[in-house]
Amino acid sequence: MFDIIIIGAGPAGASAGLFAAKAGKKTLLIDSDKSMTKKAWIENHYGLPETTGPELVETGKKQAVKFGAELIQDTVVNVTKSENGFNVATESQQYEGSHVIVATGISTDLAEKIGLSVKEGTEPRIKQVFDVDASGKSNVDGVWVAGTAAGVSVHTIITAGDGAKVAINVISELNGTRYVDHDLLK
Question: 32 near 8, Cβ under 8 Å?
Answer without folding.
Answer: yes
